[in-house]
């Protein structure tokens, strides 16, 4: 990778990934692509080029690729799971019609493409424990439907046209830098904010609901490592299970209480988020990622909790 376009650079993943890519490839250009109304701010704006890049506007993407001689596109444009259930047609437009635009530009301009999949690509008929890399995928949410279609379409463009498409299936992502918006696993970020601010946390996910989670530094590293991996060893491409930790709400609350003993939590279950969570695996088997490109996480629940609390205290001046 040398010159990179990040579509969705101001989102939860994109804002951090863009900055990491700029540090990783200081001799290249990493363009922060944004949509109107979500312009880059602060260091994201000042540290490198930015361009309006609506994934549904193919001409914009083409022009940026030509202007900066882009060789790799990180396509992060998406509505998250709970939001996509409220706006299914918009989710389809962004995640599918937008993907077609990116893949067509990549086919014509010879770019590599990373379009992440998700734990949401699985459904209630998928094996819940140690979910295999290759298994049944019959999701019951619009978000999940688009993620399965993303995997298949990305594979199609690789096998038919030779477009270098690669991806991982992200678990729920936890970060202190950018607040999430509309995801089923967002509670695992919001709970830390409440704890550091001394507030009682109202949990929208029922006790005993296990879901795969990952700390953002591991997720960002995975997104770069998969694109740098030697293609001769990649058998799956779109998309690899990657895993780090799996926990239910009581376990994350207990981890927080080791550092904030007075933390309090109660439950008000959100039926939409709970329905989605119940259709997802408890934990994924990431053996293929480990074997094919050397994936290994650095954080577990306790080390992540320590780092989250430390950095949120700084961020929130607590």
In short:
By secondary structure, the protein is α/β, with parallel strands linked by helices. The chain contains 12 helices and 14 strands.
Topology (elements, then pairings):
Layout: E1 3-7, H1 14-24, E2 29-34, H2 42-46, E3 50-52, H3 58-68, E4 72-75, H4 81-86, H5 88-109, E5 112-114, E6 117-118, H6 142-161, E7 165-166, E8 168-170, E9 172-174, H7 187-196, E10 201-203, E11 211-215, H8 216-228, E12 240-241, E13 245-247, H9 249-257, E14 265-267, H10 271-278, H11 287-293, H12 301-315
Parallel strand pairs: 1-2, 1-4, 2-3, 4-5, 5-7, 6-8, 8-12, 9-11, 10-14
Antiparallel strand pairs: 11-13
Helix pairs in contact: 1-8, 3-5, 5-6, 7-9, 7-12
What report would you give on this structure?
By secondary structure, the protein is an alpha/beta fold. The protein folds into two domains: 3-171 and 215-241, Rossmann fold, CATH 3.40.50; 172-213 and 245-283 and 298-315, Alpha-Beta Complex (UDP-galactose 4-epimerase, domain 1). Helix content is 43%, strand content 15%. The chain contains twelve helices and 14 strands. The protein has helices spanning 14-24, 42-46, 58-68, 81-86, 88-109, 142-161, 187-196, 216-228, 249-257, 271-278, 287-293, 301-315; strands spanning 3-7, 29-34, 50-52, 72-75, 112-114, 117-118, 165-166, 168-170, 172-174, 201-203, 211-215, 240-241, 245-247, 265-267. The strands form four sheets. A six-stranded parallel β-sheet has the order 3-2-1-4-5-7, sandwiched between helices. The longest helix has 22 residues, at 88-109. The model has no long low-confidence stretch (mean pLDDT 94).
């Amino acid at each position: 990778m040398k010159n990179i376009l990040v579509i969705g650079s101001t989102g939860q993943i994109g804002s951090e990934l863009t900055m990491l890519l700029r540090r990783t490839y200081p001799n290249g250009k990493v363009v922060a692509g944004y949509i109107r109304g979500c312009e880059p701010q602060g260091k994201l704006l000042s540290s490198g080029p930015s361009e309006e890049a609506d994934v549904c506007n193919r001409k914009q993407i083409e022009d940026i690729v030509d202007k900066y001689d882009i060789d790799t596109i990180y396509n992060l444009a998406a509505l998250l799971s709970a939001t996509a259930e409220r706006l299914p047609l918009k989710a389809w437009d962004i995640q599918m019609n937008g993907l077609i635009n990116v893949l067509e530009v990549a086919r014509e301009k010879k770019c590599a493409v990373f379009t992440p999949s998700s734990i949401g690509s699985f459904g209630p008929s998928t094996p819940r424990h140690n979910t295999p890399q290759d298994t049944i995928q019959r999701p019951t949410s619009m978000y999940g439907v688009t993620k399965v279609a993303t995997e298949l379409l990305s594979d199609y463009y690789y096998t038919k046209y030779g477009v270098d498409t690669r991806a991982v299936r992200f678990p729920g992502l936890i970060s202190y830098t950018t607040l999430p918006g509309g995801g089923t696993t967002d509670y695992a970020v919001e709970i830390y904010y409440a704890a550091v601010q001394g507030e009682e946390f109202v949990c929208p996910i029922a006790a005993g609901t296990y879901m795969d989670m990952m700390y953002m530094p591991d997720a960002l590293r995975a997104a770069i490592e998969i694109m740098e991996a030697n293609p001769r060893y990649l058998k799956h491409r779109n998309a690899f299970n990657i895993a780090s930790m799996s926990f239910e709400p009581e376990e994350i609350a207990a981890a927080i209480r080791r550092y904030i003993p007075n933390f309090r939590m109660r439950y008000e279950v959100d039926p939409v988020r709970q329905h989605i969570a119940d259709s997802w695996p408890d934990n994924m088997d990431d053996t293929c990622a480990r074997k094919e490109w050397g994936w290994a996480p650095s954080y577990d629940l306790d080390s992540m909790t320590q780092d989250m609390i430390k950095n949120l205290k700084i961020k929130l001046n607590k």
